[in-house]
Amino acid sequence: MQELGEVLLGAGIFINAVLAVLTYIKALNSAKTIELLEQNTNSIKDALVKVTGESEHAKGVLQGKQEATRGK
Question: Which residues of the chain fall short of a pLDDT of 70?
Answer without folding.
Answer: 71-72
